[in-house]
Fold this protein.
Amino acid sequence: MPIVVILVVFQVVVLRQQLPNLKQIVSGFVLVLVGLALFLVGLNDALFPIGETMAAQLTSSNVASSVADVRWADYLMVYAFAAAVGFATTVAEPSLIAVSIKAESASGGAINAWGLRLAVAVGVATGVSLGCFRIVTGTPLQWYIMASYAVVLILTIFASKTIMPLAYDSGGVTTSTVTVPVVAALGLGLASDVPGRNPLVDGFGLIAFASVFPIMTVLGYSLIVAKLTSPTPPSPSEEE
Amino acid sequence: MTDILNAIVRRILSALRDLAPIFIVIAFFQIAVLQQSFPNLGDTIVGLVCVVLGLAIFTQGLESGLFPLGEAIAQAFARKSSVVALLSFAFCLGFGTTVAEPALIAVAAEAADVVAQAGLISSSENARDAYAFTLRIVVALSVGVAVVIGVVRILKGWPIHVMIISGYVFVTVLTFFAPAEIIGIAYDSGGVTTGTVTVPLLTALGVGLATSIRGRNPMVDGFGLIAFASLTPIIFVLAYGLVL
């Protein structure tokens, strides 16, 4: 763990001071590592194999024989699966849990940790689903991403200054330990099974979608909450 | 110690709540859509128990270990007011945690395979390993730079949206010149960099810095480090594709 080395070196050499509650911090650090290891072992044994086989089966279940046969509507089940997986993996993402806890305490409870996580999960679901649509239709990734940037730009103009950094952060946070392997397998599987798609050009990019869309939904969520201005934010089933 | 154990029991319940959507989605698609039973039900159940326990222990450790650590470091640096030390710490933290990031290692290896298939590099194992390794270094460097920029922003109180949006504009411009094969990889590399130990630590560091510096607001200035760490890898990898 290079992170431990960096922390120790700077603590000892540069700051030269004792940490308060050293015992508690060390035991907490150990808990984090043990918990994460257990979590990943479990994922590898139980969920990833199933997720990957399912992605493979779904993408190959309706094989079009030639490029001309590819109709985007034939893949509705894939989009639904992509959205469901995007949502579910994001809700379980440990780093998002961490950031939402921090956001709730830093905002003095103005931001609801669950509301934030649901907003991000809806964003990832939309993003991954749209990303699959893009792979099936074979349209260029950069146009989608740039259009998304434009939407983010417009929302930024209206959003409050306090939510902005958090919204931008949520894009990077979502795609981590749980989401990346499943989503990457889905993208590469889909790109190899749809005729006329090149895994190199079309298989990547799902994670990019999953990183941009949460920015929109979190900005949107904050706008909706601000509009309602009720003391308890309602659950954000709305999107964009 | 009993405190921690008690807390863990409570955390297991919330971990179950966090993981319920995954279980439901997988069970639904497996049984209702694909109409198959689970291949190794026993293994799967053991794995699920590990996942729930692991997440519970992890979140407990976050609050008792990682968050206080990040904040203590931030306060110590703020008191010492040595900008050079703070910035070199920021760079090392970004670089060091990213180089070893498992998600990045996986994506870099996959990227090397696909690039080799496309004939952009020779398909020998050496060439692919070298490509994957260089890609990792490029991404790790970019995250190091990103954390430094993010910390400078917190110190100076610059508005984040201006910086992020000019970053987007830069990405857009580079995209026009970069080879098509690298674009998907570049955009994805922005997402994979920020791992599960790095994110809480960076968040605690940012919020801690913003809290201890006078005139900074933890909400307005404390977040945003991860946003930079997700943006600069795109720029660096696109630039790397141009150079290659």
The mean pLDDT of chain A is 77. Residues 22-60 of chain A form the longest helix (39 residues).
